[in-house]
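Hi everyone, sorry if this is the wrong subforum. Our group has a chain we'd like a structural model of before ordering constructs, and none of us has done structure prediction before. Sequence below.
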Amino acid sequence: MLKINLQNILFLDIETVPETEYFEELSDEKKELFDLKTKYQRKEDQTPDDFYERAGIWAEFGKIICISVGYFTFKNDIRSFRVTSFFGEEVEILKDFSNLLNNHFGKAEHILCGHNAKEFDFPFMARRMIIHGLPIPNKLNLFGKKPWEIPHLDTMELWKFGDYKHFTSLKLLANILNIPSPKDDIDGSQVAQVYYVEKNIDRIITYCEKDVITVAQIMLRLRRENILDESEIIHV
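Answer:
Right subforum, don't worry. Here is the predicted structure as tokens:
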């Protein structure tokens, strides 16, 4: 980790929501499948309809509404962190993200990094690409790769230090490492409400980009380097 060139890391975060606003909008077959999928996770008095607000955590019942990315640049020894987002229709989001990977972060030395991304972001994106019939970029395609060939970093995994049962949220890790909190507006449980009811994608983009910045800040802390100042962060 300490030897990795920061300019070779693409930091990212995704935001997801249920594929439809209401459970009733699903086909009868999809309703039944969701019922079966969540049967052992729901409380006794919870119906599939009640539980549907959580559907965005599964690639089979959710969709991506925003992918935010960030990367370091160094010019004349001046450090900056550039952040941008892809949003709109999911197919276009995935195509634009794939183009970024293939054209700018597709070299052997390039690495993708997120928080809990190995368990959520990376597989979610790959699954949604398959669902839409899109080719999976090499950086997300793990088929046939040995563990040491997978170009993924996960700040939660790095913090575990081999303790596989340990979970630390991004907000908690930012707090204990004295990094400005990314959760100063909404949290993940509110994204669907903001998307479907408020129809405020800009608010979601801001939330997603703050998470990307926080992941980069955590990486800097783990490397014992100075965290980013606001003046170093550039939104493009």
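For your construct planning: The mean pLDDT is 93. The chain has eight helices and six strands.
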